[in-house]
């Protein structure tokens, strides 16, 4: 007898190497239910830094619509897609072709292309008017209904992110307003990623996406095929397979800083599997000029030394310069606003054990 889809999903949940957390308690009014979910989220944030969430409230129909919208765009001719090249904007909106992924292309190749959008900041926002990166209005391809589908998905997952933020604040026993006061026109970005079919070998220089941690509070990821690998607590790469009806959430650099290192910003990567693959990370960020440092509760001489104050947007930009070739070129020409020194790698990076490479 062939297992049903529900049976297969239940089996994948049972076999998952990362925690699977039911969020239904967050949607109820019972404070004990909320605390139980918050406790589970906190446990996962302190150990793996990566976990699945179920019963998250985002309709499957909306998820299906997003997959269809992404496929519709990415199957357009390159000439159509390049009309919306992100390098035409001052605030990184639009199409990111294969050759823009990574400052060292073609020596190292990330086999993906993407459509990048973010929180809709107004056209009169002072950062946008000053050509600061990462803040401003979105642009949209000329595809009927596309803007409505993608915007609706973004709004739904961003709202889910606010719920997760409140739950993690509850778990840390801090006032949620201490965190949400930094979210007015955030840099929260949604990427519609398409991993490109190819016949190149999977090597350290031929990847889906190179190993990294995420630079924001956390990421809410929808993925449509295998390929994602996560560095576990033993610094060994493990598979994070897609599970029907689940998002994957991972803690980012900001929450590691806020918590004084209690929460873990976890390294992850996507192997070059050679097949087409779609995925959709929403990077839940803060306002560009928000100062990020350990929360008052977690400030000690050790945490202050380890996590000096950083501006959320500057950290994002410093890492993005290494992630996008056109930004690296602009930085080399002194055309970025603001101008700053770019580190060779994310200071939050951990190195996997050689045996697991």
Structure overview:
- The protein has 357 residues and is an alpha+beta fold.
- 32% of the residues lie in helices and 18% in strands.
- It is built from eleven helices and 16 strands.
- The chain has helices at residues 5-15, 31-46, 60-74, 78-81, 126-129, 146-172, 177-180, 253-258, 301-306, 312-323, 325-332; strands at 20-22, 50-54, 94-96, 109-110, 112-118, 189-195, 206-207, 209-212, 218-223, 228-231, 237-239, 247-251, 268-270, 277-284, 291-292, 310-311.
- Helix 3 crosses helix 6.
- It is globular.
The domain count comes to: 1
- Ranges with pLDDT <50 over ≥5 residues? none
- What structural category do the secondary elements indicate? alpha+beta
The helix/strand order is HEHEHHEEEHHHEEEEEEEHEEEHEHH
What is the mean predicted local confidence, pLDDT?
91
List key phrases describing it.
357 residues, alpha+beta, Jelly Rolls, eight-stranded mixed β-sheet, four-stranded antiparallel β-sheet, 11 helices, 32% helix, globular
